[in-house]
Amino acid sequence: MDRDVLVREVGLRDGLQAVDTFFPTEAKKAWIDSEAAAGVHEIQACSFVPRSTFEQFSDASEIVAHATNHQGLLVSVFTPNVKGAERAIAAGAHRLGHVTSASESHNQNNLRRSVGDSMDDFERIVALRNELSDPETTSISGCVATAFGCTIEGAVDPDAVVRLASRYVELGADELVLADTVGYGNPDQVKKLFVRTGAEVGDIPIAAHFHDTRGLGLANVCGALDAGVRAFDASLGGLGGCPFAPGATGNIVTEDLVFMLEAMGLRTGIDLDALVAVRDILEREMPDEPLHGAIAAARVPKGFAVAN
Amino acid sequence: MDRDVLVREVGLRDGLQAVDTFFPTEAKKAWIDSEAAAGVHEIQACSFVPRSTFEQFSDASEIVAHATNHQGLLVSVFTPNVKGAERAIAAGAHRLGHVTSASESHNQNNLRRSVGDSMDDFERIVALRNELSDPETTSISGCVATAFGCTIEGAVDPDAVVRLASRYVELGADELVLADTVGYGNPDQVKKLFVRTGAEVGDIPIAAHFHDTRGLGLANVCGALDAGVRAFDASLGGLGGCPFAPGATGNIVTEDLVFMLEAMGLRTGIDLDALVAVRDILEREMPDEPLHGAIAAARVPKGFAVAN
To answer: ipTM for the complex?
Structure first.
């Protein structure tokens, strides 16, 4: 494998979730095709939520069916509940993402259920996966949201994060994600929490999910890298946010993340120029949606070479 | 001293240098007064360049005379040559900043002289300072520009940076600055170069000067912190750039830097709310000038407390 770090594109899920107007199905497919061609290894392609809640994801099954045509592309999806997981497995998704918030208030606001109920759901999703598929074909990711703070509760106890992460692992998660859902984290806190979580949950991949709400997104990536994290969620153009968390603007910018990692000598397997070019699709389809990021405008440094 | 990290405001110099319209003298004074009141310990207040070159700094002596009225405020200035240093010492500046580029081409483009000639100038500035003042009253800072890359030459040899830094120290610099003038650096490179420079030049304060051209400004601060750096240049609202380096947009944002440092438990001595409020002066005087930064819009996290 010629990759040191996994960069997972989540713009089609976390990004589009924050966009009111429907992003056309064909444009979603073009986005996936172009990023896959640029070397992106994993794309969170959609969310299996009730159509009545998110019209944006009404084409979820069609998107997954299309994305899984790409050889070598890992197609992950967001599945908040058992019903969504069932549809996602039927559609052929490779990885199901489940989210529970370390903050009870945020979980109630976001998913309309208690943390305990969310974890019961997760248990049922694992059972369903084991019944209909297997971990090799369909892995399951458990994401601890608001791991670094919550707009409702403020500080979040690291103990609560580690407890929830451990519970995810006990119940059968194949991957963990610690998410700074509302952009509250700082590099020092990030490093410490990833180190501690890694030490407590043992040998399971742990990914980081950062929002750039307060400008510390890539600094927090540095904190996570220091802790040994080698998998990061990001959105093309920094698209995204959390509709239930006021002030939570976009994810970290995929293309800026790739630039930083490659500049640091960490191979992503992604062609940065080709990735930046994918922004054209977003600009064409959503001319009024602000795209973020520095590298698209500044271009790479003179003489810049990707890591190898 | 209740401060772990020195945050030096350079917006009045590096920021205004990139602004075409004259920023009124009274507004400059208000900017300095407000930042001093917010707890900023050092402000690079102006540049002693020929009036014919930079109308923006035609009020340099008046600005310094005003700024030095603030008890406890360290008033630093930029002095590219002996003539400028003479005026700066006469005005009562506490710290003279001299810049030489590690890239010969950048030095020629930026200062219209060779690296060797720049260092000869520096030697004369030190002699002048020793004649007219002393290191306690007037310290001298030597800044290695394009230390992390150059828009003309591309990669810059770390050996050249360390050589130039060592030469500055030999000639009598009281502080060193390594500057990523054009925003080419990455956290790994930053950490390595500060560690190496620190090891080679011995016991002299070394500050970092980053531009956010490619979005890595605060990530690079993390790299420098890892190397033990505890002094950073920054511009309010990310104002600034280098008129001689195409694509080199603003300095890192002072208020975002202060937020990150305080969040990490590093005391800056600066009242963040008061600092953010100083942006009003810039917005009022330069309504068409884009201000950058995340914390002014997103505000601090709920329950956020400064380091103590």
So the answer is: 0.95
